[in-house]
Design a protein that fits this description.
The complex is a heterodimer of chains A (305) and B (555).
Chain A lengths: L1 H28 L4 H6 L5 H11 L5 H13 L13 H36 L4 H15 L2 H15 L12 H30 L2 H8 L4 H29 L3 H7 L4 H11 L2 H29 L6
Chain B lengths: L2 H13 L36 E6 L14 H10 L4 E3 L6 E3 L2 E5 L5 E6 L12 H12 L8 H4 L6 H5 L9 E5 L2 E5 L7 H5 L9 H6 L2 H6 L7 E7 L3 E6 L13 E6 L3 H9 L5 E2 L8 H8 L2 H4 L2 E5 L2 E7 L9 H10 L2 H7 L4 E3 L26 H10 L6 E8 L3 H15 L3 E8 L1 H8 L6 E7 L6 H8 L15 H12 L4 H17 L2 E13 L3 E2 L15 E2 L3
Parallel strand pairs in B: 1-10, 15-16, 15-17
Antiparallel strand pairs in B: 2-3, 4-5, 5-7, 6-7, 8-9, 9-10, 11-18, 12-18, 13-17, 13-18, 14-18, 19-20
Helix pairs in contact in B: 9-10, 12-14, 17-18, 18-19
Protein name (chain B): Heme-binding protein A
Organism (chain B): Sulfoacidibacillus ferrooxidans
GO molecular function (chain B): peptide transmembrane transporter activity
Chain lengths: 305, 555
């Protein structure tokens, strides 16, 4: 297992370097001059050139990349061109908010998706299953921004139960998290349903029933444990992408997290922030994928490395 | 529009892309009041002290250091925290003393400021050195201040200081602790306007010396009406009243809370719920997605304050690249554009423009444009002129625009459609604001949409910045060059304010318009929504928002 983890970490580093090269190249190959944007139209050409020099924009792209990676290895992600603050500070200021939203949304997805998946599997092709399936299809089909705006309007504005937008305490997290959960839970439900149906027809479930195990014991003690594996795989990817920034949701609700920071940075061509947020998101995807793979072995002892 | 300002507005607008309209219907129109103690929505009563005003802020303030504030949101934040030597009176273009009264020498080159008795929040007194320090910061290359070009090489000795050949600016002298003397290289009709810009605020030299640039940029230490009590990144700014403000009787509010919230839908709902006092406190205007729901809702229609900006949205025609090198082609294209249609697609938040200088500019606007500088919508004439210029079948070209503001693309598409009616087939090249700007500043774009918003109320800020040959290609990105115009613009820059100077700029503009490097499209209209219980709000043409004059009525 330890050898496997070390191998995976090595591979992950290669992936992250690849991502950094692609992002860096794309961001700097765009024909724009951040130096002019920083100093404004009335600044002299000499000042523009000086800022270019300060930012290292006068150097060839590979040299800039080497400098960037050198700084990165020392934990320095650079300074925002627009906000003039260290990228690490900007990310750390928002990471908590995004983490809170991501974890809440993920838990809400599971709380909605898993029971629906189980019910749907147990009542396969019965009325309950049809109703649940239709609801799941609707959930999958609805655009996130539409669900978000409807929740904002009805729950936040008309009923006034929760804040309609912005960033603050846990109250501000509920609606955005619910938005993500409504649109995302359906995936879990469908995934779990098909997995449960497969498992429920297995020999060992039949054996458990024959031995007189109670229905609850069969479902939760035997079937669910195996049926949950594909859900875990998807769950790992899902929470990683959530941590990377629920960009649309943060935008709809004006929630100040990593996603919003990324959108602003892209609009401003604030390359250090773009690089920082992309690498931050990539790091989470890589870490959670690794975590999920390790958890496979814990949940299902048949899986070994 | 000043590109830095344009950039920030663009960011705000693009943040607003996902909003949607979810409210009512009806019609409206309203105008702003002109004085601080009257209200935007009618009624005039005695100001009430106290209370908290909550506002939504579409993005965090990029800078709180006056030397760095050159985008719309930063400028307006800095104005709450700092004061300048002079400022604008109410909603007018008139310059009045702020932290100092002043006299100007006969030759117009020496300005002497008598500084008022005022203190920074930490108790340090404001002195002549408070301004000298700030001028030197702005001029310093390491500061990268957008203000540098406004005073260099205008102030005597600035060039030597910028070049590192002098440790002081010879034109800046502290006669004594409360008297500042500024000597210019030549008289300038616009210098007082420059001094009213937030770049040239009083800063505490001791505080500046003791803290890093990045600290100062997030922890202001000013003389202003409000102090920054707290900033929670990504969440809010809390401002509290400066009890020792040097202007007696203001501010009225005890506290202002800016919630950072870039969702136009949430901004609209918060306003409708009465949680916030205004939409668009700052220069960005009401987000596009919120404007129609507000003006179409009878409940809120009367809460809208509108004012035509001292700005011109225009369509640039390159004088050095492509068929538009030919002045006859450029003139033909002027006749092809129906500006009323553009006003309609901007939801009425604009008025048609017929020249470079906006009508709200206090001088330089030409009421009676000469026939050869005046164009009205006439596609038949446009076709005829194109044929005469050697393009009977029109031509193919590219229109460059940016994606930071939904309105820019709308305008580009409208012009594209109008051009196609006269045989000119254009493809639209849309890119991010920075990419567009970098391309624009090379002077190689065939045609483009852009806007210019005044830095100060003087025609030179438009004409000299955008059409002088020495501004090619960064600001004069149409590559317009005319020796006669250059001579007029250079002459105007050293003339004293008055009719003779105004006529020089009018003459320059008429020549430029006759050669059609721009198709002036519209003068945009700024709109804000103000709750009826928020009193004292007004819009200065230079868009300085006076939160210190605002008070909250019982509601």
């Amino acid at each position: 297992m330890i050898a496997y983890i070390i191998r995976r970490i090595g591979g992950s580093i290669v992936v992250l370097i690849g991502i950094s090269i692609i992002t860096f190249s794309l961001a700097y190959l765009v024909p724009a001059n951040p130096a002019r944007a920083i100093v404004g139209p009335h600044a002299s050409e000499a000042l523009v050139l000086q800022v270019e020099k300060q930012l290292g924009l006068n150097e060839p792209l590979p040299v800039r990349y080497v400098h960037y990676m050198g700084n990165l290895l020392q934990g320095n992600l650079g300074t925002s061109y627009v906000l003039d603050q260290p990228v690490t500070t900007l990310i750390s200021q928002r990471a908590g908010a995004t983490a809170q939203l991501a974890v809440t949304a993920w838990i809400a997805e599971l709380l909605i998706g898993i029971p629906i998946g189980i019910i749907s599997a147990l009542y396969d092709r019965k009325a309950v299953d049809h109703v649940v399936s239709i609801l799941a299809l609707v959930g999958i089909s609805l655009p996130v921004f539409f669900v978000g705006l409807e929740l904002m309007y009805w729950v936040g504005f008309k009923l006034g139960w929760l804040p309609v937008g912005g960033t603050g305490g846990f109250n501000f997290v509920i609606l955005p998290a619910l938005t993500y959960a409504i649109t995302g839970a359906a995936y879990y439900a469908r995934l779990l349903k098909s997995s449960m149906i497969d498992v429920m027809s297995s020999d060992y479930i039949r054996t458990a029933r024959a031995k007189g195990a109670s229905p609850n014991r069969v479902i939760f003690g035997h079937a669910l444990r195996n049926a949950i594996i594909p859900v875990m795989t998807y769950g790992g990817i899902d929470i990683a992408s959530l941590f990377g920034g629920v960009v649309v949701i943060e935008d709809v609700f004006g929630y100040s997290g990593i996603g919003q920071l990324t959108v602003q940075a892209i609009n401003n061509l604030d390359v250090p922030v773009i690089m920082g947020t992309v690498l931050f998101a990539a790091l989470f995807v890589v870490l959670f994928n690794l975590l999920v793979d390790v958890l496979y072995g814990i949940v299902d002892p048949r899986i070994t490395y | 529009m000043n590109v830095s300002k344009m950039r920030m507005v663009g960011v705000i607008a693009s943040m607003a892309m996902l909003g949607t309209a979810l409210a009512g219907c009806g019609t409206q129109s309203a105008t702003t009041s002109q004085q601080g103690n009257t209200t935007a929505s009618g009624g005039s009563t005695q100001p009430v002290y106290g209370g908290t005003l909550t506002l939504d802020l579409l993005s965090q303030f990029p800078h709180l250091d006056p030397a760095k504030a050159y985008d719309t949101t930063s400028e307006e934040a800095v104005e709450q925290f700092y004061n300048t030597l002079v400022t604008y009176q109410g909603a007018t273009n008139t310059i009045v003393p702020d932290l100092a009264s002043y006299t100007v020498s006969d030759g117009g080159k020496v300005y002497t400021f008598s500084i008022k008795n005022a203190k920074f929040w930490n108790g340090d007194p404001v002195t002549a050195q408070s301004f000298i320090t700030e001028f030197q910061r702005v001029l310093s290359n390491s500061m990268q201040s957008g203000g540098q070009g406004f005073v260099d090489p205008l102030i005597q000795g600035s060039a030597a200081y910028v070049a590192g050949k002098a440790t002081n600016v010879s034109g800046l002298k502290a006669i004594n602790s409360s008297t500042l003397q500024i000597t210019l290289m030549h008289p300038s009709a616009t210098f007082l306007y420059v001094l009213a810009m937030p770049f040239f605020s009083a800063v505490d030299p001791t505080y500046i010396a003791a803290h890093s640039e990045s600290y100062i940029d997030t922890h202001p230490m000013g003389t202003g009406p409000f102090e920054l009590a707290s900033y929670t990144p990504g969440k809010d700014y809390v401002l509290t009243k400066n009890p020792n403000y040097f202007v007696k009787g203001i501010p009225y509010l005890n506290k202002i809370v800016f919630n950072i919230n870039n969702s136009p839908s949430a901004v609209l709902f918060h306003f409708e719920q009465g949680q916030t006092g205004m939409i668009s406190w700052n220069q960005g205007g009401i987000p596009t997605e919120d404007y129609l729901p507000l003006i179409n809702n009878p409940t809120y229609a009367s809460d809208i304050v509108k004012q035509t900006e001292v700005a011109t949205d225009y369509f640039g025609l390159n004088c050095a690249v492509g068929p538009t090198q030919n002045v006859a082609v450029r003139r033909a294209l002027e006749y092809a554009v129906n500006k009323q249609v553009i006003v309609r697609i901007l939801d009425g938040l604009a008025v048609p423009a017929n020249q470079i200088i906006p009508p709200s500019m206090p001088s330089g606007y030409e009421q009676n444009l000469p026939a050869n500088a005046s164009y009205s919508y006439n596609p038949a004439l446009a076709k005829k002129l194109l044929a005469k210029a050697g393009y009977p079948k029109g031509f193919n070209t590219t229109i460059y625009t940016d994606n930071s503001s939904p309105t820019d693309l709308k305008m580009a598409e409208a012009v594209q459609q109008m051009f196609s009616q006269v045989g000119v087939n254009a493809t639209i090249n849309q890119s991010s604001w920075n990419t567009f700007l970098a391309s624009n500043e090379t002077g190689k774009q065939n045609m483009f949409t852009l806007a210019w918003l005044e830095d100060f109320p003087d025609p030179s800020d438009f004409l000299n910045t955008l059409f002088n040959t020495n501004q090619i290609p960064v600001n004069d990105s149409t590559n317009y060059s005319n020796k006669q115009v250059d001579a007029l613009l250079n002459q105007g820059s050293i003339m004293p304010a008055g009719t003779a100077r105004d006529n020089v700029y009018k003459q320059a503009q008429n020549i430029i318009m006759s050669q059609a490097p721009w198709i002036p499209l519209v003068n945009p209209v700024y709109a804000a929504a103000v709750q009826p219980w928020v009193k004292g709000f007004y819009v200065n043409p230079n868009l300085m928002d006076p939160l210190q004059y605002i008070w909250i009525a019982k509601h």
